[in-house]
Amino acid sequence: MKAKSFFEAWNAFFFAEQSPIPVALFRVIFGVMVLATLLLLRADWMAWYGPHAWVSLRTMQAIEPGTRLNVFAFISQSDFWVRALFWIFLGSAASLTVGLLTRVNCLIVFVCLTSMDQRNLFILHGGDTFLRVAGFFLIFAPAGAALSVDRLIRIGRGKEEVEIRPRNPWAQRMIQLELALVYFVGFCWKVAGTPWVQGTALQSIIQLDELQRFPLPSWMLRPTMLKLGTWFTLALEFSLGVLIWIRELRYYLLAMGLFFHLSLEYLMNIPMFQWDVLSAYVLFIDAGDMERVWKRVRERVGGYFGERVTVIYDGGSERLRRIANLLGAIDIFGRLSFVDSRDAGAQGGARVKAARNELVAETSSGARHGSDALQTVASVVPLLWPVYVGLGIQRLFKPAASVKAS
Amino acid sequence: MGKSAEGGASRRGKNARKAEAAKEANTLAPGGRASGEKELARGQFFGLKKWQYVAINGFLIFHILAICCWCLPFGSPFIAACRGALRPYFLWSGLFQSWDMFSPLPKATNAYMEALVLYKDGSTTMWSFPRMEQLSLTDRYSKERYRKFVETVLVESSSPLWPDVARYVARMPEIRENRPQKIMLVVKWSDIVAHEDGTFTRAPWDEHVFYSYDVKPEDLQ
Fold first, then answer.
1. Could you tell me the maximum CA-CA distance found in chain A, to the nearest angstrom?
2. Closest-CA residue of chain A to B148
């Protein structure tokens, strides 16, 4: 490969702008994984990380010396402060999941995750390590550029339009590379072991009582099947590490990887590892394909949320335009259509006049204004259902709200 | 990737158009030269400033090489020297990692750990660490860390951990209140034996006290 074409390929891979939806979706799943990890550990926070834990901080530092990013080393060694740190971590992970102050929370989650791992290195599994390393690169990614509260705030402030702007994907690529490396390094280690090459590794592993979860059917326990299973593992780990970069093979490999990890989840007791690794699969899905799938889901499911509502707003009013943009971003099932009353001048009349002052929600049963309009809109947009309920409760105390027909 | 590349191409086209517009602006508006050049430079660096583009590339090259060097099981002296140089940064930043799950040799022993507690009144009790095979499905999810911990503790090189483990057992409310005097850590194991015909059997269970700790009054504080 000539140097010029290498640089072009490098730039296209790391810098050619693309939709941030895959990395935003990864952020959501990553946040859920961190929350699940923390909640599963909840009963043992003090046992593993407290001042009187199984391994004291001093012992940990003596066994694994060196300067490390570890907040536990800086806070007072008391139950209160350790618990406080965990609650901050939990709150931050929840905020990251919904995309509130995304960058800051991503940094806090990474620091807390690393600190937690550093505080007790003897209880970690591969899933913890993957979350930590992916969390490092996620700090640099445009993870809040889509599917986030941050984006809604930006739209509400008029700093962003409804259309999602493409971004440089270099940080997303690093997480993808990390995932591919997990498989490839796993493959390299395995081919160095005789049981893996000879095909006896799985037979040995299924004898470990502590790892067994659900039983396998007896025909799958035959030596020939287990041998094939061992070699399939090797072939799949190599493919997911190397061949995943070939676009035509990618979705087949991801499907096989999904099957592989779900099988392990059924068979083996290594909680969270499979889900932690699977979370990064979304980064390999093309944003265009995601949008196509979502469009189909929207077409099939959207109808269940009610009749389409036309929102009429005055495009000359900055405030109404922002609100319309915000509703457009929240309306993930496409139940709203928007009409700028200035464009709809031909239809003239009261509808246009009314829309100059406030949003109007129009359905087959007529036009509604003010809080009625908001309630109509909220009834068909699932993310606004809490608002719908809130307005319904408010109406109980303020009856006889006016309904104006157009 | 193909689509991304196409997206990138169209974006580059857009950038080129922007750059053209910027050039035009330079010729039309006095004092517009500097901003036009800036636009052109941004077009060349994918919407980034030149220093950002250079810094990100440096970051990417360093981390790709460093992570490969750290993880891949190559035994050359050069790679070992690189790992040594990278070690402080990797340990500090939390980028340390290893992906040798069940390899190169899968574990070939079923083992678990118990603590034999000797009280001042001469009585004894056996405290058992949570064993995954005896837990409910939900408990296995939340207590899996014990499996990993016991696996680590049972390795000879983890001996510095043993006093902490013994002290923790002594501090457990139901043990502390009965005034423990000595804690003995016991491993029970059964090897998985491979046969010529490709089958595996389990050897009988064996046990061994691998650590003994005399409880001090301050341990129970």
1. 83
2. A123
